[in-house]
User: What shape does this take?
Amino acid sequence: MKIILTCSFLLCALSAQSGERQRMITIGGALTEIVYALEGESSLVGSDTTSYYPVEAMKLPKVGYLRTLSAEGILSLNPDLVILTDEAGPPPVLRQLKSAGVNLRTLKAGRSLDDVKRNIKSIAKILHREKKAGALIRRIDKANETLSQMTGNTPYPKTKKVMFILQHGGGAPMVAGTDTAADSIIKLSGAKNVVEGYAGYKPLTPEAAISLNPDVILTTIRGLKQAGGKETLLKNPSISLTPAGRNGHVIAMDSLLLLAFGPRTVEAALELNQACQGL
Amino acid sequence: MNSRMRKAITISLPFIKFKAPVLLLLTGLLLVATAIAASTGAVSIPLETFLSGDLSSSQKAVFSFIRLPRILLAIIVGASLAVSGAAMQGLFRNPLADPGLIGISSGASLGVAVVIVLGGPITGVFGFYSLSVAAFVGGLITCLLIFRFARLNGTFSVIYMLLAGIAINALAGSGTGFLTYLSNDEQLRSLTFWTMGSLGGALWPAVIVAATVVIPSTILLIKNARKLNVLLLGEQEAQYLGIDSENLKRIIIICTALSVGAAVAVSGIIGFVGLVVPHLIRLTVGPDHHLLIPASALLGAILLLAADTFARTIISPAEMPVGILTSLIGGPFFLWLLMKQYAGRCGI
Assistant: This one.
């Protein structure tokens, strides 16, 4: 028994030592971005379909969408470590992977800059790139200082009220409430989420969209395309009767940049802040 | 047509004397529901302000571009579903028949799933209406398929239609299931919400398109009420009485398919109304189609308008899928009515 234990400890230690040669899979766009930011991509053998930044990440073998993973797809890449966000699933597949002996490491999906930094540190530890992580975190902190200066300079009445539309298929628009990544990034950028009455993404009554008086409509590039483009979106009464709609204040950003809470989150917040102020 | 026959039917169905009061009562209820719906919502427009015509410009805009089309759409869709249900139950002589039987709902779901999951972003004006178009086309194609199967041996057979309907509905369902499996979060979310129905997309174009399809087919169905009454006696008996049942079946199926297709296209799938509203009317005032069809139209409109008013106000600013509420409001009432009937019949 003792011998087995010692052996397994030794094996663990060995595999930890050989961090450079790991066969890793990342599930979740933000986590893949972090690996690239830490220049640890040489150990990546695959990722999921939400990992499309940087461009090189698109060339990695894809194991499917993060919520509909399949065990065999992941096993076929023969990984020695799978780093995944806690949004990944379905749970039975994760259990299958575990029982097949795959090493899983779950990290919390980011909702704040602290989460981002914590995920960077965790991944840096796995990749033995603590130095790189330190530099990256310092860069984020510095950008954050610039951001807080800009948001701090905005007097309160000028705070823009932003409504994030996940999708608008013509019916009730699907709008972000509190406790969503969209809510976090809006607040981080110094603006205000117009919805405070509910949590999560819910279809919003068109009339309520108007009575909430948003100054800015924020959406993803994909969401805007699905809604038929800016022109079509602005024609819908639920949008056109709001201050944002009357003035044509629609901002569309890439969903991974805007919502994933990865290394580029401060950039996204800055971009959003600039876009709001420029209106 | 033949006045002697009409008289005979009138005698066999004594409920006909209720026709005017029942329709008047239902019309009154619909007016009350409309007034309540018009004066409630996230943007406050009190009834007194509304009646005095003293609206601010934003209230006016909200009322005329958002609330009014939505109220009208609820009335049109509710009437369409209930009338189609009544006609289907008459045609199939089966109390469980509803418009879903001829494949409209399953086909429409499949069409919508194809567009949401495989279509990707469609730009331009068509992108905005793509779901409606997909639902309408999907529904009609499925209905045509079922119709063809029902006519395989030359004449149109109701039994074949039922069986082919079950098989083709199942096929469409598996197609939708497969697409659901392929979908990601966002797609799954829009797909699920679509199948629970919503009148949130009520815009004037939708109202006008739905009205131009639904109103003529409802009128045509009311015109065929007498023939449907005769059909209740049995298909052969109806033929002996001079009814071209082949033609009748075709008219009813085409009317319901178009009408429900248009309703589903603008509102997604709204359950319960088509199945249960005709039963509510039958249980209270009897099975005469002269009364059943117009009364179902009114009650369907009332139920859906009431449900939709709740849907857009109870968890405001968010919105509840209206399909949940039609069952929630209508279900207990229907059970109560059923129990009352049962108690009356068995002397409990």
User: Anything to note?
Assistant: Residues 21 and 161 of chain B are 37 Å apart (CA to CA). Chain B touches chain A through 42 residues (CB under 8 Å).
